Each structure stands twice: as C-alpha cells, then as structure tokens.
Amino acid sequence: MGGWPAPIGIVYEVDSLNALFIILVQFVSLLSLIHSRHAVNTSYGENSGSFYALYLLLVTGLSGMTLTGDAFNLYVMIEIVALSNYALIASQRDRATFASFNYLIAGSVAAGLYLIGLGYLYVKTGTLNMADLRTHLSTMQHSPALMVALAALISGLFIKVGLFPFHSWLPPAYSYAPDPVSSITAPLTTKVSLYVLVRILFWVFGTDFLASTDSWSFLIVTLASVAIVVGSVLALRASELKRIFSYIIIAEVGYVIGGLWLFNKAGFTGAVFHIFSDGIVTLCLFMAALNIKEVYGGSHLSALSGMCTRMPWTASTLIVAGFALVGIPPTGGFVSKWFLLNGAIAAGMWHFAAALLFAGVINLIIFYRIIEPAFFEPPPTSTNNIKTTRIPVLIAAVIIILLGLNSGNVIESFIYPITPY
Amino acid sequence: MENMLLLTVILLPLLLTACVIILSRRPRARNAITLIVSILVTLLVFFICDRFGGSAAERISLFQLLPGIDLAFRIDSAGLLLAAVSSFLWPITNIYSIGYLEESGSAGSTRYFACFSLSIFATLGVAFAANLVTLYIFYELLSLATFPLVGHRKHIDSQKACRVYTGYLLGSSLLLLLPAIVLTYIFAGSVDFSPGGILKGTASGPVLVLLLLMFMFGVAKGALMPLHVWLPSAMVAPTPVSALLHAVAVVKVGVFSQFRILSSIFGFTLLKSISLAGFSGQQILIVLTVITMVAADILALSQNVIKRILAYSTIGQLAYITLAFSVAAPYSVAAGLMHIAFHAFGKITLFLCAGAIFIACGAKQVNEIRGIAWKMPVTMSCFAVGALSIVGLPPASGFISKWYLLLGAFSHGFHFVFYAVIISTVLKAFYLLRILVIACSREHTDCVERACEQGRIVLCVAPVAITAILVVVTFFFSEMFFELAKLAVSQIQGL
Question: Closest partner residue to B166 among A335, A368, A407, by Cβ?
C-alpha cells in the first residue's frame, strides 16, 4: 500500500488460510444483506442509508482483518470493525444502546491490550510486518518482554472473542442488537477475531516459540473446557432464541481455543474448520431467528408453538443448524467435533474431550426444547401473514450439509497445505 | 453393473421422499407412487441377491467425508439379508398404512409417508455401509427420521414418548457410540470394515473390552438393558410405525450394526482373547445378553397392553440375536443372521394383528379382547402363527433359527446359554399363549361386539395374512436366507 515495499510498507497477503476466511466474510455478508433487506426497510425506514454505510464499513474492516499482513494495520482494522459494530448495535436506541456501551468498554480494553502486546513486539524487533516479525522472533532469545507481548496479545484477543470469563459483553450485545445487524455481526466478528488469534499464534510467533509456553497450554485448554460447559449451561437456562444462540457462540469459542491449544494437527484442523463451519451455522441460526420474529412477533421459547407447520422451511433450517451444533453427521459440526475429539485424546486432554461430548448433549436438549413445541403444538392464530425471505437461510443450511459431506476436499485444499504441524 | 443397481436401490427411497412431499395435495397419486417404488426396490434387491455370488464386491465411494474417510458402500451377504428383509416388508407395511390411516384419520399423512421412506433409505444405507462412519451417518438419520413417526399423533403421550425415544437413542450415540468410533480410529488408524477386524493388537485387553461395551451399549437400537427403555415407550406410535420399528428398520439396524462391529471391527478371534478382570469379552457379552433376554421375558409377563407385551418380547429377541453372535460358533452366527429375517416376519405379523384389532374395536389391552377370535378369525389365526414363530415351534420359521442357535451353543460348550434359551422359550410360550387363550374364550367383552373383518379393514387384514403365510413358507423354503447366512459366515474370519 502507498507504494512502499514490505517490510516497511503495509502488505496484504493471501494464503489458503486467508482464502478460506475471506470467502466466509464475503459470503456471509452477502447472504445476510439479501436476507435482511425487508427487515432493514421496516425498522430503519429513511435511515437505511446510514445502516448500509455502516454495514459496508463493517465488511471493509472484516475483510481487512482477514487479508492484512501487517500487525498494526490489523489493529486499525480491528478498531474499524469495533466502531462500526458499536454504532450498528446501538442504532435502534433501545436496550441495545447499553449493551453496545458495555461492548465498547470491553472492546476498547481488548484493543488496548492488543496494542500493548504489539508495542512490546515492535520495541524488541523493530518491525510491524507479520512475516518479518516471524523472521526476527525465530532468531531471538526468549525474553520476559516477548512473553509479556504474547500474553497481552492473547488476553486482548480472548476478550475480543468472548472466551469465559471475558464473555459477559457478548450475549447482550448480540441478542439485543437489531436483527439485520446480528445476522452479520454474530457470525463474523467473533470468527474473524478467532482467525486473527490463529494468525498471531502460528504465523507471527510460530510453533517453536509456542512450544516454550507449554506450561500454559493445560491451563488454557481447561479454561476452554470451562467455557464450553458454562456457555452450554447458560444457553440451556436462557429462554429467548437470540440469547440462546449467543451463549452457544460462547461455547463454540471454547471449542476453537481449546483446539488451538492442543498443539497437534488434529486439534489445529478441527479448530480452523470449526471457525469456518460455525460461522455458517451461526448465520443460519440468526437468519432463522429473524424470520421467526417476523412471523411470530417475538422469539421467546414459549411463543414458538407450531413453527414446524407454520414455517416448515425455516424450521428445517433451524433443525439442520441444530444437528451441526450437536454434531450429527453429515454436517460441518460433526467434522470439527471429530477432529477436536481426535486431537484431545491424542494430547491426553480428557477433560476437553468430556466437555465436547457434554456440549453435544446439552445442545441436543436445547434444540429439543425449541423444536418440541414447534412440532407438537398447533400454531397460534395470531401469527403475521408475512412471506419471509427463505432462500438465503436455505442456502446456508445446504452449505452446512455440503460442508459435512465434502469436508475431506475442503480440508485438503485449504487447511492441510498450511498446517503448522 | 451391481454397483449401479446398488446405488439405485439406495437412492430410490430418498427420491420417493421428495416425490411424497411434492405430491402432498394428491393422496391417491402419492399412495400409488409409494407402492410402486417400494415394490420396485424389493424386486431390485432380490435381483442383486440372485446375481451376487459371494465374491468380494467393489466399494463405491461417494463423498470425502473426512480426509481419508469416505462415504462408501459395498454389497455383501449380511447386508443383502437386512436389505431383503426391510425392502420386502416395506410394501406390505405400506398397504397396511394406507388402510390404517384412512380409518384413524389422515392428518399429517404426507409427513408420515415421507419419513417412512426416509427411514427405509437410512436402513438400506446401514445395510450396505462399508465403514463405521457411513454406518453412523445412516444410523443417526434413522433415529431422526423415525422421530416424527413416533410423534405422529400429537398427544401428550406421544410427546413424552418422543422425549424418551430421542433421549435414549441420540444420547447413547453421542455419549457412547461417537467416542467409540473416534477411539477406534485412534487405535486402528481406520474405520473400514474388514473380515478379521481392525483392532487386533492395537490396544490392551481391558481397554478393548471397555471399547466393546461402549459400542454395544452405544448402539442402543439393539436394546441391551438398561438402554432398552425407548422401545416400550415408542408403543404410542401408530401400529404400522411400531411394526416398522420392531420388525423392519430400527431394531434390525441395531443388531445388524452390533454384528458388523463384532465381526468386522473387533473380529471374533479378538472377542475371545480380550479380557477384563478375568472374564473374556465374549463371556461378558454373553452374560449381558442372557440377562436382557430373560429379564425382558419376565417383564413381558406382567404387562397388559398388547403392544407392550410385544415390545418386551422384541427386546428379548434382540438380545437373543446378539447372544447368537456372541457365542461365535458358525451355526450360531448363521442362526443370528437368519433370525433377523424370521423374527421380522413373525413380529410384524403380531404387530399388524394388534393394529387390526385396535382399528376394528379400539381394544388395546389383553383383557379387552376376550373372545375376539370368533369375530376376527383370520386375524387371530395369523396371530397364532406369528406367536409360534416367536416361541420357536414348527411349522414356523423361528424354529429353524432356534435349532441352529442351540446346536451352535451346545457344540461349543455353552451349556448355560442352552438352558437360558430354553427358559426364555417357556416364558414366551406362556405370555403369548395367554393372549390366544383369552382371545378364544367363549364370553365376549363389549368392544369385541363391534369388531368385524369386513369393509376397509381388509386393507389391514390382507397384509397380516401375507406375513403369516410367509412365516410358514420360510419354514419350508428357508434356502434363500440360509444361503445368505452361510455366505456371510464364510466371509467372516475367526469362527
């Protein structure tokens, strides 16, 4: 950028890891845009212009986060994403405003920690380009400053992705956000931040450096297992659809973080694949929630009777997404669960494997609770007679199944070429 | 050529599901096309059986599910046996369903027929699966496809039953079967079915015994106690669904999966050599199956609802089949495979009779059908034939499989098994004959007054007669099943 060559200038680089996630970002933002057109017109009316402007800014930031090869540019993109998120979430001026403010505080702390970490790295190595950082770090002695840098970067990103116990900003922000906003924010922001974590861990620091932090890995995997359990149990206790889905996101973050810190091939593959597949699943869930809200006027669990008869297509996409979360083949969720279980057993982290199985059962109960009244009870007569947008949700559900059927090809083309183990 | 036929056979029920959904406004067309496709599938399966010479067929690989693991099918004799039984009983159950739904209200019949053909699709997928992950995919699909069938009548009873059903089946497969498959992959590096098993020498004896137990209980469709509870609860379903669950699809998939795991993942030699706390894997499995078999028969004695008696009898018969496999003698394994077919015919007869009785006069309990034999003679004679098969007396085919099982058990020194089977036979005779005796009594109860076998009930009675005749015919002409079973046994190593 700006005509300056690397490592002084800012570069954008694509390798197969990037490629996977830029596809995710563009695909999700397109589908969500098409899907929420009607909802945007209804809720924003004349202000739709500002919605779309912020939306495009968000997509810019997300694409930038995915593609950049410069660590400080990454910080800039993180902030762009964060600011557009704060504005979008608060744009309807109801309960979401406070949730957005909460998110703002947490997000700023996180970005600040990231900046501190990056600052230490810059002081020690003199460069901000990721590839260059890697070259410098691989030849340096391990010093406390570098450990602090790693710790600060990881902590900042943990807050950004909502790992337990830094998760409390996430459920209010994603569930009170206006529906068109949550359809893009919920799938993408967390997932792209997880991608950033993968990049920093394995491309900037590298596996040799990480091997010296082995003492942390048990702790972090345990934290991830707790996150899975806590997220699942909180989702079980929630009673409003978007809230439930937000808590499920917290549990899924635990899957990825635990998988990454297993430090083996299966764990890495499972974690990266899970980021991608769970992005699509979350998109499907939130788009379905939007449809349900349009027809039923609300998305409380007690109000969902007869959904299977009243909205069969949306109900079936919800069921497919549920299968992916429980881990029933042939969905993408089964594939990531397979790899994560393999990696957990190979690394001897039995508590992580147990947490994964536990989460599957809890997700089964959660989705059963949603589907049972939808199937068994007759629909109420007071539902709106709206024709909901079904094609984008159906496309998302079909992709989930295709991912499950073809994961061998996807993993061999995108993940195996760049796997660090 | 066989592979193209195989793919057609497996995919036809899936296409039928789509057709049923498209034809939802035209019930007559939907019924017609369901019947045509089901008969076509049956004919194709029998055609493949005929041409299949027992040689190792090629694998067909469809998708790369995971790197190194594909969605693959292969024809072999045991799979053909399961496919033949399921596909042959499918058109019969279809005819019965048409009559049953017309009598009892046809709300939701599109969903009914769609899920029915989806279940058959899943059963055929399990029958021909060439590796554990493919089997697991179709196994789970079967659980999911049968859920709307169990909950067909949207009462509070079906709601509770569905919770138990889903809870046991999906819970056991998520907590036990899936980890077992992952562990198999970690130990053996593969999940393909091969004749001598793939786990030999990969882990220590006690660990493998625990893995075996995880598999046997994880396949909860095989109803080993204490994971049998879903079966009696599923009796709230309409009778054709119970017939499907207990004769055709779900339970047979359960014991078939157990057979595949025993013969092609563990291998019978390994089964005998691994041990935990001094007991070999084989001994532990035999004890578990005998306990289930006898306990189920004892529980059946105390039941009053006809369908629940039949449900506990099924649990016992499934344990009997798994017992036959665990004894690991060539005769007993062949007996187990044949019993998959013979039990299917006998049990479906019994269930269809119970359904015909319910449609004719609303009776569900044994004490309500006093004297019904005089009003519905055809139905009750078919019931008698089915009961003979389950008890295992000639001229019903259940006798043949029992004979071979006892032969295999006695010749390999398992005298305990021999006596347990005899005790179970006596118990079965008791509770099944009790129903017949009550049905033949001279007094009538009120609801029996209304019962008759004319009119639309014919659609329900004719299939029952067909299956009962089959029970007797397969006694005299059992070659086809015997040949398939023998071929299957010859392909297994370690017996």
Answer: A368
